[in-house]
Fold these 3 entries.
Entry 1:
Amino acid sequence: MSASKKVLVTGAKGMLGQDLCPIFEDEGFEVVETDRDNLDITDENRVETVLNTEKPDYILHLAGYTNVDGAESDLETARLINSKGTENIAKMAQKINAAMVYISTDYVFDGEKQEPYLPTDTPNPQSNYGLTKFEGEQAVQKYCEKYYITRTSWLYGIHGKNFVETILSLKGDIKVVDDQIGCPTWTVDLANAILKIIKDEKPYGIYHTCGGGYTSWYGFAKEFGAKCNPCTTKEFPRPAKRPKYSVMDNGKLLRNWKLALKDYMNLREV
């Protein structure tokens, strides 16, 4: 594959985008960074204008409504961004013959499975956030022929608010949920997995791009040295229902989550 391909990134100023864009630039891609200030994905006309002007080879659709609990009380906004916004991007990707990468989530699953979810497993979201992200997946599959849906989970990175930084900033008697199991994922590892999918020209379809292995939120916190105690989901109620088991089989696209976390902790100390 030619290294001079053009990549347009939505949500480039977000936690993932700030790690992903430099990684793609270092690989020789021409990267067009967009965010809500210059590309409102909910504005169909604006999407059409920008994508017709740029005509990228790839659209990396990182922009999204990510307030999981907020979506429970504001489904309209979550749906406008995650569903309609993604539909707008997918339609234009098809028109300009661009391949689309859509970042989805483990929250599309209900968490009732007893073994790692496969990309072929049927989604059954239990929250408004999960629902709107799944609607985004459906829009991509309906309107765009050349697509990669990349489901990730428990994302953390140096450029945004995340579980690691939140827990480390808390003082006192901290309780962390120990009965929700999933796959922590570092933004840098996710960005590199997306890069690999594109460079290797993998078949279009759905991929699970989360850290390898699994743990609970409590196990995650203990791994990065947090002083905390385990609790149950019932003891720590939240507006949005979380899947109790959202481990995904990543097909060895990403390394073990503990190795990634170690590199992240070293980086944040610099």
Entry 2:
Amino acid sequence: MQINRISKEYLVFILFPLALFYWGLIYWRNLFYHFGFFVTRSLPCPVISVGNISMGGTGKTPFVEYITKYLQSRGMRVGIVSRGYGRKTTGTVIVTDGKTKPKLWQDVGDEPFMLAHNLNNVPIVVDELRYRGGMVLVKKFKLDIIILDDGFQHRALYRNLDIVLINSKDTIQNQKLLPYGSLREPWYHLSRSDILVLTKINIHKPQGLLIRKMKETGLPIIKNTIKLDKTFRSITNDQIYLKNIKNCKIYIFSAIGDPEGFIASLNQTKMIICGEKIFPDHHNYNRLDIKKIEQMAKANGADYLITTEKDLIKLSGFKFNIPLYAVKIRLEFHPKSKLEHYLQPFL
């Protein structure tokens, strides 16, 4: 106990100065944008940014998919620009023209790859310079609107609507700047946004302090819940219904930003979780990982391996001896009418 306490104090001694240095970088960068020393450029069509203020796990990718499908259902031609985190390529890469699906997630990043396979008739580009990527979309495809994925910190591109997602599991302990906490920039920078979305309220009970801090911003607040889809999907696109594997023993594993939310959502089913393995967000699996997962699953008597949709795309090159399926989540908004109200001007 004493050793652990000393280790934590030593870690704070190291991380706190790094957080101060990071704060300085963020402060001057935003100041330069505020006074026009750094240029913010606009695309020839409206841009909706979906981002967050803390590291991972807020549900950006499902949210981007949701509003893309909503805008499509209203007759809009939608494109998506993303950085393509974790990809091996650089520069501008067209993930999909809306019809042809990408073959290798390593070329475009796991989340754009997943969006490309979940959406139809939606061109997607990855580029570390989002304005450049957006211009490629505009020139090649006649679009009505562009969704900027993970765009809150990317101020070089003007957005007409700035949506920031906040995970309901966030606590006072992690509301500190990186690397001391999980914040990508100070909380008061939320004043740049237009809407706050408190996510996964049915999975994590938000602390009163978090609700109070959100209300103090004076911004509109929308809440969402996540539900498991009734079907699970395998690498070969075979499907199994949730009702058919209730009361079965499952071993779960993931490499996402909010593994606790993934586990909690499965706990709400009648499946029996007999073990779990958590990897770092965006982890690239290898054969040793798969071997250890199957060994632990077998030792615990698992009938199935269950992972996330984002993880499944990284597992197609591996052979599994235990049936593997991925869950897909769907979002519900409260109130739904408020989100639609803010999207209405773009229709």
Entry 3:
Amino acid sequence: MAYLDFLSAIHKSTTRDYLARVNEYPKAQAAALAKNWDLDYWDGSRHTGYGGYKYDGRWRPVAEALAAHYKLASGSRVLDVGCGKGFLLYELMQVVPGLELCGIDVSTYAIENSKPEVRPYLLTGTAARLPFEADSFDLVISITTLHNLYCFELFDALQEIERVSRKDKYICVESYRNESEKVNLLYWQLTCEMFCTPEEWQWWFDRTGYTGDHSFIYFE
């Protein structure tokens, strides 16, 4: 297991007003709307989610880094758990032609509004019960998804990711290292259920037998 940072550049490119997040719109109402994983979350107001999650090419550097580090080649099988609209999978398709791609997400809306080029490879489902045989994929990734699960679902999801991967695994989750980052995370998040320090995340990895790579994003 290694700590590999593929995501912080994208995460830090967004400017966040943490106080506005909790003062300009009822936070409980915003979270309730976001957790429907529907239009409000993906393409509605910024108060309830992304404020319009459109393809803009930002995932290309991540795809290039993943492909290079994990030595992906034509015929490699890749699963994205929590794929959203499939933008990262689309970039992987461009970077390494011939990949066998699959994505799964709890949001029917996201899949119905995904990148058309990858839509045939996406399905609705939960990370806690992956509908694939053991050792099905060369690389399983999950980007900013697993912290949205309750602890009992997280336990199953980590074991499921381990089960369906025959080689490499990489996940990125939200975390905090101090009280300032904890407060910012609490202010900003809409869907997070697992509020864990890096040490607590490591406990979960050890507890579930997760052997893949990982990284954290922090709200500094």
